[in-house]
Amino acid sequence: MKFELPRLPYAKDALEPYMCKETLEYHYEKHHRGYLTKLQGLIEAKPEAAKSLEDIIGSADGAVFNNAAQVWNHTFFWNCMEPTGGGDPSGDLASRLRDTFGSLQRFRETFIATGMGRFGSGYAWLVLDGGVLRCVDTSNADTPLVRKQTPLLTCDVWEHAYYLDHRNDRGKYLEAFLQHLVSWDFVAEQLKRAG
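Below the sequence we write its predicted structure tokens.
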């Protein structure tokens, strides 16, 4: 299977001022494209070349897993944002978040704490785990897919995701992500698909 770099769902300057065009150019064009290029080279003329990205993630290890998972994680991350995003979710998603965390504010605090608690590089996630909403973090290329958790939302907390915009203030970046960037419609759709 020939993997392609997915198109961003918005222009590279559409998330400003919370994520600048330069951040997206480096992150998308260099990091994401780099993982994809490495993956293609690693699986060329091998059985993995005929598999889906999710199947590769579920069966590979080492460099093949790392690059496949990073391609998947980044693609999911881009879709978790939109230019008019942020604020509070509504509908069933909001109800489920309130039921699980006590309030939307408590969810935000938990999600930010999860991202802040990730030492080094990785991701903060909202997942559906056995029917229960949870905030979890993963290191480096790791992904909830390997734990049979359903990803609903992620925020990339590798420094290259926020350093140009927020320097070393990961907390400010996570707050901006939730207040101004997150696509609650996308998150709600993932929850609906999960059933």
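The two ends are 29 Å apart (CA to CA).
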